[in-house]
Amino acid sequence: KKSEQELKDEEMELFTKYYMEWKGGRKCGNTSYMNIPRFYYRLPAEDEVLLQKLREESRAVFLQRKSRELLDNEELQNLWFLLDKHQTSPMIGEEAMINYENFLKVGEKAGPKCKQFFTAKIFAKLLHNDPYGRISIMQFFNYVMRKG
Q1: How far is CA 46 from each of CA 43, 52, 94, 97, rounded to the nearest angstrom?
Q2: Strands (DSSP E) along 4-147, which ranges?
Q3: Residue 99 CA to its chain's centroid (Å)
Q4: Tens digits of residue pLDDT in 80-132
Q5: How far apart are CA 106 and CA 84, in angstroms?
C-alpha cells in the first residue's frame, strides 16, 4: 500500500503530464512577459561620459519639442480675442459663454497648436448645468492655460 505522500506525488505528476498535453506540450510556462516593453533604464554612471552626454542631449531635444507645442503670448491673445468675438448670449452675470457651434468655429480659426483643445470631450468636461448648453469662456481659457 502507498503512503499518503506517494499518492500526492503521483497525483501531481499525472496532473502535470495531462496539463502539459492539454496546453500543447509546451515545456515552458506563460511567456507573455516577453512582450512587455522595457520601461526602466538605469541612469548612466559618472564614468560613462558618452551616455551622460546622450541623455542630456535627448532631454534638451525633448524639452525644445515640448516648448514649441506651447502657446506663446500672442497665440493666447488671439485665442482670447476669437473666444470673445464668438461668445453666445445671454451672459450669466459677468461671465461670457460660448455654445458648441461657435466653439468649433473658434477651433478652426485658432490655429494648429490650439486644435487639441477644441474637442467634444473637453467641451463636455467644462459643461455645467447651463440651460443653453454652453461653457464659460473664462473656464475654457483657464483650462487651455493649465494644459497647454
Answers
A1: 9, 8, 59, 56
A2: 88-92, 95-99, 134-136
A3: 26
A4: 999 999 998 888 788 899 999 999 999 999 988 899 999 999 999 999 888 88
A5: 10
Q: Which grid cell is 78?
A: 488671439
SS3 content of the chain, % helix, strand, coil (to 5): 60, 10, 30
**Distance between CA atoms of 108 and 119, rounded to whole angstroms?**
11
Domains of the chain: 73-147 (1.10.238)
Distance CA 11, CA 119 (A): 61
| pTM (two decimals) | 0.60
d(CA 125, CA 143): 10
Nearest to 136 by CA among 146, 147, 126, 144: 126
